[in-house]
Structure formats: structure tokens, C-alpha cells
Amino acid sequence: MHEYLRPVDFRLHYGASDSAVAGILLESPDGTSPGAKFWRKLKTSESKWPSCLREMAGYKHSLASLVRL
Q: For the whole model, what pTM was predicted?
């Protein structure tokens, strides 16, 4: 493990359930849309994934949505 030396740019919380993935932007360096919410329903095949994989899908979806923003 390595210590992260840069100050935090963005703070994004995300998660997943059995039916959806979601994230919320809590902090950004320039005030860009704090409180922005990203979510989508899981496909039937995705809802059968283990919880760790659903959590990573939530992270990927939230990060991709933030990049588009």
C-alpha cells in the first residue's frame, strides 16, 4: 500500500443493491455539481453477480457519469 500524497480532488460515494447501482458526488475542487446523483437499474444478468462485483459496477458507472459531467 502507498500513501496518497495529493489532496482530494473529488469525493464520490457509490454503492449497489440487488437491483441498482448508484453514486453521489459529495465534494469537487471547483464546486462542480456537488450533490449530483448517478444511478441505473441493473440488468437481470447483473443482478445475479456477487455483491463485490455489483459494488465495482457501481463505482465504474458513477465514475463514468462524473467524467461525462
A: 0.72
